[in-house]
Design a protein that fits this description.
This protein is of the alpha+beta class. Helices cover 27% and strands 27% of the residues. The strands form 4 sheets. Strands 2-11-10-5-4-3-6 form a 7-stranded antiparallel β-sheet, covered by helices on one side. It has a 7-stranded antiparallel β-sheet with strand order 12-18-17-16-15-14-13, with helices on both faces. The protein has a 3-stranded antiparallel β-sheet with strand order 7-8-9, with no helix packed on it. The relative contact order is 0.16. Bound molecules: FE2/S2 (inorganic) cluster and fe (ii) ion.
């Protein structure tokens, strides 16, 4: 096993399991490397958008943002504009926010409620319904009737799961549950439909999206980056990694929770469970509440980081007031910890094009990064 360079504390932690069966279970992949240019090359970036993002299920808005029929929200990532609209029967449909006459943006704004169930293009007045179908066109008889009869904005696949709407831009990808696989089975345990999306923040980072994903999928930076905030609580050296391509996850023991459970307790009840829903959504879960964030590529060197705090029903034995206070405090802690990560990540942006950039070294404790880059490599290889 290759020890992580320069980090004595981390080396100590990994050394304790070297050579044992435990070490294989804790760190299932050998060390690996990745060329730093894969983070900065514009052609690679375009391949990732096309080959990775255009075929994945992507988590969009909280379902509660469009709770009632007529509510809509516009997804504005990956150079796309997609209307997500709650239908009269309670279902959700999504469609490209592009007028099919001459390509104007159809729905302005980020979110709202459409009482009439009709959206009017601001350019020449085409009118569409909540499903994206054309309902009225001025000068209709002046158009080619074959072209205008069944006109609609192209639909986008949408599914609701875990309190969010998910989108998929490909018709070839299987349904969301199949796509999420083991990660979905893991997440089912929490009953996320009963959780509220109570907190949120977003910011733009000066870094490639994969740098940001990498930063949140290993624990051994904790004693350095999060010395004051996490290192005493999170038993980062005992994290156990699991790879379930294209996703991955890990369990992390935490003081005050893991020690209150027997060894054979369900890991989701006794640990922080941390999931990557490939390619860009992370869940960091306690049994009763969680933080979850998505990293959207916004150019080779920019990432839109969108985070939410979700809170489950108030546990027995705690007053509602205390539960709110506790969750407010946890969300504040999460923001403090995330800003420690984001400071480092933004620093990466200032050296991204340095001639000193070479190959990145992933150690065994960074096995989830190895799996992630292996998957990206597979999907973006020539001919893939
Ligand atoms: S572009 Fe929408 S009506 Fe002309
Ligand atoms: Fe961190």
């Amino acid at each position: 096993m290759q020890a992580p360079p320069t980090a004595q504390a981390a080396a100590d932690a990994t050394a304790t399991t070297t050579g044992s069966r435990d070490s294989i279970e804790q760190y299932p992949l050998p060390p690996s490397t990745v060329d730093s240019r894969s983070y900065t090359d514009p052609a690679q970036y375009r391949r990732e958008i096309e080959k990775v993002f255009h075929s994945a299920w992507l988590r969009a808005c909280p379902a509660s943002d469009i709770a009632n029929p007529g509510d809509w929200s516009v997804f504005s990532e990956l150079d796309q504009s997609i209307v997500i609209a709650r239908q009269d029967d309670g279902s959700v449909l999504a469609w490209h926010n592009v007028c099919q006459h001459r390509g104007a943006r159809l729905v302005a704004g980020e979110s709202g409620h459409c009482e009439s169930g009709r959206f009017t293009c601001p350019w020449h007045g085409f009118i569409y319904d909540l499903t994206g179908k054309l309902r009225f066109a001025p000068m209709k008889t002046a158009f080619d009737p074959d072209r205008i009869a069944a006109l609609r904005t192209p639909p986008v696949r949408a599914e609701e799961y875990g309190g969010f709407v998910w989108l998929c831009l490909s018709s070839d990808t299987k349904d969301l549950k199949t796509y999420l696989g083991d990660i979905g089975t893991e997440l089912d345990w929490f009953g996320l439909e009963t959780f509220d999306v109570r907190y949120r923040f977003d910011l733009v980072l000066d870094a490639n999206w994969k740098v940001v994903v990498d930063a949140f999928n290993e624990t051994w930076h904790v004693p350095f980056t999060h010395q004051a905030t996490l290192s005493e609580i999170v038993q980062w050296g005992k994290a156990r990694l699991r790879i379930c391509d294209p996703h991955s996850w890990m369990t992390i023991p935490v003081k005050g929770l893991t020690d209150r459970h027997p060894d054979d307790a369900d890991h989701r009840a006794s640990h922080i469970t941390h999931y990557l829903a490939f390619p860009n959504t992370i869940y960091s879960n306690f049994p009763t509440h969680l933080q979850t964030w998505t990293m959207w590529p916004a150019g080779p060197g920019k990432t839109h980081f969108v985070a939410y705090g979700m809170v489950g029903p108030c546990p027995e034995g705690i007053s509602e007031e205390k539960w709110v206070r506790q969750n407010d405090r946890d969300w504040q802690n999460f923001q403090d910890v995330a800003s420690e990560d984001c400071n480092i990540i933004n620093g990466w942006g200032t050296v991204a094009h340095s001639l000193g950039q070479g190959e990145y070294l992933f150690n065994t404790a960074e096995g989830r990064l190895t799996a992630f880059h292996r998957e990206i490599g597979r999907r973006t290889a020539a001919g893939a």
